[in-house]
């Protein structure tokens, strides 16, 4: 009766393996949001920066319909868990259509398969481990513009009840931005009075909201004010590239804002460390670079042909030179008379058609034979 025993052991082992596999998904995750292909490179660099801090937690990117399949595969290859979502309609219809979907960020409050999520905007990078953020309470965010909460970096405890309550109030509460950030400021009106989160001394009872220090959401706008970080640079955790329309993946921003170099350094590492991902390059950018590279050559070639066809004389003189050379050779080798054929163009230009070949032409002829 050994085989049933072995079978049972094998089954138990298989079950254990399965359980381990299922447990591979972490209870806490980093989350970002991608509305279109424009920010794909941003998400890739963010992912790389996160992995460089040594985290083993899930990295989830919520992608909307505007994101291409190519980009989704790219992100998957980078180690992101790609979750497709539909945009959450903007109830404040006074805003133009491009603001549609700005409430979609609220969906992170509905990610109930995780106990806690750290949300990061696609234009952020992590320069030092932020694992301690998972110890933050129910809702943590940064205070910017003196008394407003910035939704670029947030710690959220997903809850369907909370999410449904938010959705219920989305149409009623005002939003100064017309989007999620303004709404969250109305939803948590007391946020400016929150205590600053200190990972080493947790508060009891756990407060509803807590503020994160600037180190967790350091705005490059802040850097630009004094041309340096006004916080301890060694302690910097998250850099947020809020430059309005300028983004770190625009090639010229590194000249304008020094911290973009940090972003570019990570982008460059992307190429080496992530196989099968197109080397971290944006295919669109690559095409533009190729076109810009080839364009001068095309123009040069075009100009050359243009000039050739315009001044036919040049072509003709080359042809007549050849004919002349051929005739001259025949004449020189065999003293026989050449079959008479007319030379295209003005052989008379040479003025020596019936004379002995000059030493220079002789040399040319000997080279060509
Ligand atoms: C919120 O999450 C629940 C459970 O996963 C899901 O059934 C529901 O569709 C989600 N709501 C929205 C608006 O995404």
From TrEMBL:
What EC number(s) is this enzyme filed under? 2.4.1.-
The positions making up the signal sequence are 1-24
Q: Source species, please? A: Panicum virgatum
Keyword check for Cell inner membrane: no
Pfam families attached to this UniProt entry: Glyco_transf_8
User: What does the UniProt keyword field contain?
Assistant: Glycosyltransferase, Manganese, Signal, Transferase
What would be an example GO MF term here? glycosyltransferase activity
Family, according to the entry, reads as follows:
Belongs to the glycosyltransferase 8 family.
Give the enzyme's main class according to its UniProt record, as a single word. Answer: transferase
Q: Does the keyword Transmembrane apply?
A: no
Q: What is this protein called?
A: Hexosyltransferase
Q: Which domain of life is it from?
A: Eukaryota
PANTHER family, sorted: GLYCOGENIN SUBFAMILY MEMBER
